[in-house]
Amino acid sequence: MQNNYDVIIIGAGAAGLTAGIYLSRAKVKTLILNEGAVGGQMVLTHEIANYPGVENISGYELARNMKSQAQKFGCKIRSNIKITDIQLTEEIKQVTINNKETFTSDAVIISTGGKSRTIGAIGEDKFKGLGISYCATCDGDFFQDKEIIVVGGGNSALEEAVSLTKYASKVTVVHQFDHFQAFEHYVEEARNNPKINFKMDSEIVEFSGNEKLNAVRIRNKISGDISEMNIDGVFILIGYVPNTEMLRGIIELNGNNEIKVDNNMATNIPGVYAAGDSIAKRFRQVTTAVADGTIAALSCAEYVHNNKKEPLEV
Ligand SMILES: Cc1cc2nc3c(=O)[nH]c(=O)nc-3n(C[C@H](O)[C@H](O)[C@H](O)COP(=O)(O)OP(=O)(O)OC[C@H]3O[C@@H](n4cnc5c(N)ncnc54)[C@H](O)[C@@H]3O)c2cc1C
After folding, report:
1. Which residue, 88, 154, 224, 290, shows the most beta carbons closer than 10 Å to its own?
2. 142 and 250 part of one domain
């Protein structure tokens, strides 16, 4: 494999693969480097029912299609690698993988995504996607007329608790403190909704079921009492962790460690762009990642063109 590219993309989720499709189709020499399997969070998703034009598809299949589309246009992809060194501030960017191979490029797109915060209770890993969800927009619709729990006490937990009452017959908000960390209007709206009730000072300590989740054990943090509750689904909405550890001190991040970008997906470093779930934004979906990846690719192609004065074929 050659070592010099026009653009290196870090992360092969929806954002990175989209950027790879656009850049390679525009004949911009592009390499995608990905830790783990190609597809990112898409491959954790059994069913995607809100990608426009595709009524129903497994996340794995959508990821596979994006990957082969990028490769068809000539995009190179290296997966299951570890980035061990990264130099972004000079005109020529350098990325070293596995402590032994170094790649250079004129520009870099960071699309390293992120992950939802977990509560770490017994059974949480086992029932992920089998009753436990971290995304109300993605999965709310699967809980029509079911009884569900929302874990959390911030803005998104309360906002989503209200929105989930469109589907669920009953929503119980389980929160670890006796007060919420949300705007008053979200709290009021949730309190006034007859389908929502609250378990304060409480935490889920165990998820159980057979093939799917059907019960949780909840501990009252003041009394220590444990109660059991039969439940069809649990939405854990306690925040998001972007995969930006390796960028700390290099690129400008906000207080949540999300990458700050402008409307062109440009970061504070010339020639470095970012896209998808790792950037500072409100809605994290495949469609928004794909949109960010498109904008980053087009901006990046223009940057490479201006640097090299080569024809732009986007
Ligand atoms: C269970 C679940 C269900 C979902 N359901 C839906 C749905 O139905 N509809 C919808 O629109 N959205 C859904 N989403 C959200 C959607 O999947 C994400 O918003 C979207 O896929 C994010 O894409 P991304 O490319 O920004 O990041 P990611 O998908 O997170 O991809 C980032 C990639 O970067 C790699 N990476 C991370 N760090 C490094 C590093 N240091 N070096 C190299 N590579 C790195 C990762 O391995 C990963 O492959 C769901 C998410 C989850 C978790």
Report:
1. 290
2. no
The one-character DSSP state at 203 is E
Domain span at 176 = 118-236
Ligand 1 pocket member 17 (CB < 6 A): no
For the CA of 14, the nearest atom of ligand 1: 25
From the candidates 139, 232, 277, 292, which is the catalytic residue?
139
Cα atoms found within 13 Å of the Cα of residue 287, Cβ hemisphere only:
11
User: What is the model's pTM?
Assistant: 0.87
Atom 33 in ligand 1: which residue has the minimum CA distance?
11
State if residue 11 touches ligand 1 by the CB under 6 angstroms criterion.
yes
Q: Which helix (H) or strand (E) holds 161?
A: helix 155-164
Residue 128 C-alpha from the chain's centroid: 15
- Contact 300 CB / ligand 1 (< 6 Å): no
Catalytic annotation present for 6 = no
Note whether 231 and 268 are same-domain residues.
no
- pLDDT (tens digit per residue) in 15-64: 999 999 999 999 999 999 999 999 999 998 878 999 999 999 999 999 99
Looking up residue 298, the CATH number of its domain turns out to be: 3.50.50.60
Residue with the two structure tokens 């440009």: 266
